[in-house]
Amino acid sequence: MNNNLFQIKIKQRLNKLASLDYDNIECWQVQEAANKAQIEWTRRQLYGYNVRKEGAEQSSGLIDDLQKLMVHELLNTLDKGIYHQASLPANYLHFVRTDVLAKKECCPARRMMVYQVEEANISVILDNKDKAPSFEWAETVATIMDDKLKIYTDNKFGITECHLVYFRKPVEIQFNGCVDIATGTVYTADQECEFNDDIAEIIADNTAMILAGDIESVTQYQREQQAVQTNS
Length: 232
What we know:
This protein is α+β, with helices and mostly antiparallel strands. It is 34% helix and 25% strand. It is built from six helices and eight strands, in the order αααβββββαβββαα. It has helices spanning 3-15, 27-47, 60-66, 122-127, 197-214, 218-231; strands at 70-75, 78-79, 83-87, 92-104, 107-116, 139-145, 148-152, 158-168. Strands 1-8-4-5-6-7-3-2 form an eight-stranded mixed β-sheet, with no helix packed on it. α1 crosses α5 (197-214). It is elongated and about 70 Å long. The mean pLDDT is 88.
């Protein structure tokens, strides 16, 4: 959906086009609300806050809706002793899985099964011979903390490759000629909503709902809230 159509749909739901009751809304306000709406829609699908009560990849429909946001990336790791550490990508939003290749002097590299665990339980896990990292069983654990991914080795093996599969943040919508409220610069090109048109329609409704709430337009807010809840 191109940006002109996207903005017209939002204006239609706020102004009824002909009345221009709220035509003094700045384009940067629409842009900010649209990007907030994208994040809200994405989080509802990832965590199951939708009418279907389904989270990420729990149905073929959600797989289709979210597949644009799933990314596979090779990370650079640093050896920190009992674990190898990698920085999460800047656009990281939600963990899917980690794949690593491990090495030991006696054996060729092998792929490890990596289980994500809580940072609070690491001491207990490393102390338990059945749960601690094991090159022989090709199993280890990983945690996420302070925007870092930690893959634990317990000094028993090394890691040659670390792959992260994750959901990224949606690409921010930009309107040509609008001001970036974070930097004060003016955008010189459009960045359209990257989702398919059916999802863009929901995001347009969600955007109108946010703007209606900002301008205290109760009727429009309630109408758009109903549309968003029904179609999310």
